[in-house]
Amino acid sequence: MPEQAKKNSAFSALLKHREVGLAAILVVLFLLVGLRNLAFTTGPNALFIMEDTAIMIILALGMLCVLLVGSIDISISAIMALSTMTAGIVMKQYLTITETQAMVNGAMTSMTLRESTPLVLIILIGMGVGALSGAMNGALIAYGRVLPIVATLGMQYILYGLSHVISDGQAVYRKDMPDAFINLSRENLLGLNSKIWIMLAVFLLVFLFLTYSRRGRYLYAVGSSPEAAAMSGIRIQRSRLLAHVIMGALAGLAGLLYASRDTKITQDMAMSYEMYVIAACVIGGVSVSGGRGKALGVVLGALTIGVINNALTMLRLTGNSEFWKKAIQGALILMAVVTNVLIQRAKERRVLKDRRI
Fold first, then answer.
1. How far apart are CA 30 and CA 356, in angstroms?
2. How far apart are CA 295 and CA 303, in angstroms?
3. How many CB atoms neighbour CB 124 within 10 A?
4. Are 115 and 95 in contact (CB under 8 A)?
């Protein structure tokens, strides 16, 4: 009996701290792939996966806030496109190209300097447009009482249309971008890429906001029970609006990093990216019905998808077939989601069992 009690206690602890279990699964998956290809488990490849997944993590942290209040946002790709295209047009309009001479390795070398609007202002423009787009979604859902999936689906097409209109159907290419913007996703500090540092900063801010701030805790309360939250004096509409504004601002930031990495801005950039983001949240233990989820779980969920994507590329299981690659990606993500649901049901059964008198 003591042995059985110890097993039950260990299982209960695992259910309570699901991030530990998810981290263990992630490590096992990482090592299993490494058995087929030793290069997969090297430090440089691990950093590459983190760097490649940083944008998804930023978006998933924003989606976490939205899902916590019982909403959803499938327009984030369109928000990324509009925000980045707006910033791209500003960059292109004020771009100046200067030819100069500089000493490189002891020899005078011709250099081309591309300068435009200050990078800080570009980032503020992108995040501002994203926040405004998120506010429009939030207003429709919170005050207009439109179903979240309907509101954000409609806004997706509107935002893509606006992106096409303001760009006049033209893309923004590397030649139209200043050096500072291109280097936004390429700088390194203490051995880590700038995208990783930005992602870590966003994670820390979201973690502190959800864990220690009153408005952050309100998001959990609204998603868990809107009626009880309203009786407690929480303004439900304001919390839902705030969640979508956060999502929009982070989508704007992610769009800038995405464009800086690819050195190209189009009207339909990152289309369908929201599916990966929602999957990362669900794998990380976020409830789509609201009120449950943690920032760390979201990061681990996104890294799981990143490991899967990287493993399929390195192991060449699908050859050059993009169809089979996506099929295997979908199957593995679906397995992870189903596992997450089963764990959550086991946790709920355990809670109900413990409540019995």
1. 40
2. 13
3. 13
4. yes
- For 31, the 3-state DSSP assignment is helix
Per-residue CA distances from 137 to 24, 184, 242 (Å):
37, 28, 10
Using one digit for the tens of pLDDT, what is the confidence trace for 50-63?
Answer: 999 999 999 999 99
- Confidence at residue 42, expressed as pLDDT on a 0 to 100 scale: 81
Residues forming beta bridges with residue 264, ordered by sequence position = 173
Q: Give the pTM.
A: 0.88
Nearest to 198 by CA among 59, 77, 75: 59
Domains along the chain?
15-351 (1.10.3470)
Collapsing DSSP to helix, strand or coil, 111 comes out as: strand
First to last CA, the chain: 20
**Dist. CA 326–CA 84, nearest whole Å:** 26
H helix intervals, the chain: 2-16, 18-36, 43-68, 76-93, 119-142, 148-167, 179-182, 194-212, 214-224, 226-231, 236-262, 273-283, 295-315, 322-355
d(CA 273, CA 62): 14
Tokens representing 8? 């039950």
